[in-house]
Amino acid sequence: MEFLTGLISSLNSLVWGVPMLVMILGVGLFLMVGLRFMPILKLGTGFRLLWTGRIPDEDKSAKGEISPFNALMTSLSATIGTGNIAGVATAIFLGGPGALFWMWCTALVGMATKFAEAVLAVRYREVDANGNHIGGPMYYIKNGLSSRWGWLGGAFALFGSIAAFGIGNTVQSNSVANALESSFGVPPVATGIILMVLVGLVLMGGIKRIGDVAGKLVPLMAIFYISCGIVVLMVHAAELPAAIALIFESAFTETAAEGGFAGAAVWAAIRFGVARGVFSNEAGLGSAPIAHAAAKTNNPVAQGLVGMLGTFIDTLVVCSITGLAIVVSGEWTSGSTGAELTSNAFATAIPYGNYIVAIALTVFAFTTILGWSVYGEKCVQYFFGVKAIMPFRILWILVVPVGAIGSLEFIWLLADTMNALMAIPNLIALVLLSPIVIKLTREYFVSGGKAPAEMTKQVD
């Protein structure tokens, strides 16, 4: 295990170096400029389409399995998880308050990235042998680029199928087990078994059942968590201006050691802010477009406008609530990290705040396991077809309890590394296909919202 940890640690340092940070932020900025800052300017349009997309389009010609709203909720179910609670806390513990600023920057440019991903997912999706729509980076690489880029799609699917068991399964069940054990004394083994049963009950219903569950659980839990976070900020309202000033100051200057905080250089704030931001909202990873490809729509740009809201909601709303609560409460200097740090911050303002965080983390992680099961399944299906779906689901369910009793440090390291490996082929594809995204977007707004042509193929 020590050798494997050292090997992955070395790979992690390589793939999360300066080139990766430049790629993630650079591609997002490139797309944002190419789209003339449309994702920010049309944020209201996105929320309007999200509201009207709560039910599938009445138009019988609209293709897909789930409503645009449930497609976003499935995507959010995969993104709103431990990254919003434990991930933000870890970023601040390692990089200081300034890490939150760099998470915001990642999210702003990530809105353009997520928009492009969703547009391409619908534009180049296919129909499998079971009659279901499938898409994502491997398919918009396959159908949008020349055959010489085919290996890039295969690379994404390979990394995605492996990463899913880390970021989307074991990391989540491990965090839930730790939270429930520390707050309620529930043995990790019991947590793993219960999670396995619940995941199995939902997973066997496929993406339609996952979308239905996510469409109900995600909004309710997000509203509950955000409301509790606002209470924390209101209790510490007097300290809020100084906390915000500290976040901006720490983003560009070294953060001195204080209390249990060891201090952090600016590079640490950038590195952990960007890494945890990507881990949380997944903009650039290429995971979310797999869910958006199943949306019942003929309009790639409309789904892109809905899809970009995932980054806004995940990071600029939910992660901000967590980060601000940690800084404004002063708990960031306590020496605690992970979900414990967030729990301590909430407990400073709300009785039994640690229980609230534990419950929120449990629900968020449960829905993340469901959402990422879709991603991993489609990556495996890309290689082996529909015959691989059921074996994958069975394996996915069996791995859940394994994560609950595993090593948190190793699992976080593995998930962080797989994030970067997934992102590389996807970011390359987004740059190469950016002219298509920009063209479809301009046609959409010039025509007043009429559907651009969609390419859908039938595959075995």
Structural features:
single chain, 460 residues, mainly alpha, three-stranded mixed β-sheet, 20 helices, 3 strands, 75% helix, globular
Summarize the structure.
This protein is mainly α and 460 residues long.
Uncertain segments are: none
Radius of gyration: 21 Å
- Structural class designation: mainly alpha
Characterize the largest beta sheet: strand count, sense, and whether it forms a barrel. 3 strands, mixed
Strand order of the largest sheet: 2-1-3
- The rounded distance between the terminal residues' Cα atoms is 40 Å
Helical amount among residues, as a percent range? over 70%
Q: What is the N-to-C order of secondary-structure elements (H for helix, E for strand)?
A: HHHHHHHEEHHHHHHHHHHHHHE
Number of strands: 3
Mean pLDDT: 90
Q: Note the overall shape.
A: globular
What amount of the residues lies in strands?
under 5%
Count of helical regions = 20
